[in-house]
Amino acid sequence: MAAPGGARRQPLLLLLLAGLVYGASAVFFEVKDGNGTACIMANFSADFLTSYNTQSGSKNSTFKLPPGAEALSSSSCGKENASNPSLIIAFGNGHTLTLNFTRNTTRYSVQMIRFVYNLSDTQIFPNASSQGPKTAESIPDIMADINKKYRCVSSNQIHMNNVTVTFIDATIQAYLSNGSFSKEETHCIQDEPSPTATPPHPSPSPVPESPSVHKYNVSGTNGTCLLANMGLQLNVTYKKKDDKTVTRVFNINPDNTKVGGSCTTQQVTLELQSEASTFLAFQFGKNASSSRFFLKEIQLNMTLPDAKVPTFQASNSSLRALQATMGNSYKCNAEEHIWVTEAFSVNIFKVWVQAFQVEGDKFGSVEECQLDENNMLIPIAVGGALAGLVLIVLIAYLIGRKRSHAGYQTI
């Protein structure tokens, strides 16, 4: 009896081992010109995190680039002054990942990355409320010197609308000169060691100045769905490579930040992507019964070169902050502190925000925050107390004067 049982277990063991290899192995891709000479070569593994809508709300789907993925014949080496090289990868039930390349005299880069995912694939997107293909695009930080290969062992996250693609152990080269990977390579920022020449910061780390207040807006097919004036500051707690836990404060610099987002009937998303590999997203929802909008989710993905785990991620989808009636705006001059997780919080300065119903690209009637109302109550209370004290002194003076006159009456 033991032998048949062992025989039944062997296929299962082989499937488990295949699954482990599938999760860890990179996939090789190649694009050749009409003469059969390779012009693009790439070898990487990739993880996909996609948010999609169901009848019961938003859900996330996580999946990997399978070993059966292949470069399509529609991939191209490009033509001089006519088109740029492109690598088009197909996998699964109608999913494609496209890398479009461009170059100048010294460097080449991925000009655009495009991911088309098919919501009709029920294995990856069960119970999706809509069907068919969806497209997400972004400009990644994948670049290298001419005649050198791009090399990135660390995880490199590319954030797009509702999609995050994570490249792992990537080797990519376009504009090949001899039909094979170059021996020389350009390393990604994520692989570069943290600077050692900078003087150590005292503990705790110094807090930067208040961030610049900037105006952000998000528009969709029906016009503007979000207006926001605010300054943003991130508080991140993490463990350094020497196992020392530190809390650092980062300002979001609007001058170095790309602004994006999306509008739907049920949610509005503001996405901020900085040059320092920081992705910050604010998602607003609404309560139909109370006709109010509110900040319901904050998501952060950033790279910390001196951290023990360089990729820092945090999110919370159960927030109820920055609330106001639909059609009105929420305003707060006081600094607001929003805890997202134990290791991450956001300071928001001079916020003025309105989501969903935005008329004429102008803020609606203002609803003041509780902090501002409390700040107004303090001077009112102090003024009232002083007025009461003056009144008491005046009454006491009048009573004393009346008694003084009574002491001189004629008998």
As residue ranges, the low-confidence spans are 1-24, 194-203
CATH class of the largest domain: Mainly Beta
Helix count equals: 2
CATH T-level fold name of the largest domain: Porin
Family: Belongs to the LAMP family.
Transmembrane segments: 376-399
GO biological process, one term: establishment of protein localization to organelle
Domain Lysosome-associated membrane glycoprotein 2-like luminal: 29-175, 211-359
What features would you describe in this structure?
The protein has 411 residues and is mostly beta strands. The chain has two domains: 27-191, Porin (Beta Barrel); 214-371, Porin (Beta Barrel), CATH 2.40.160.110. The chain has helices at 2-24, 370-406, and strands at residues 27-32, 38-54, 57-64, 70-71, 86-91, 95-103, 107-118, 133-138, 143-145, 149-152, 156-160, 163-174, 185-187, 214-220, 223-239, 245-251, 257-263, 268-274, 278-287, 292-303, 311-316, 321-325, 329-332, 336-341, 344-355, 366-368. Strands 1, 2, 3, 10, 11, 12 and 13 form a seven-stranded mixed sheet that branches. Strands 14, 15, 16, 23, 24, 25 and 26 form a seven-stranded mixed sheet that branches. Strand 2 (38-54) and strand 3 form a beta hairpin. The protein starts with a helix and ends in a 5-residue tail after the last helix. Mean pLDDT is 84; it is low at 1-24 and 194-203.
Summarize the structure.
The protein contains two helices and 26 strands. With 411 residues, the chain is mainly β. It has two domains: 165 residues, Beta Barrel (Porin), CATH 2.40.160.110; 158 residues, Porin, CATH 2.40.160.
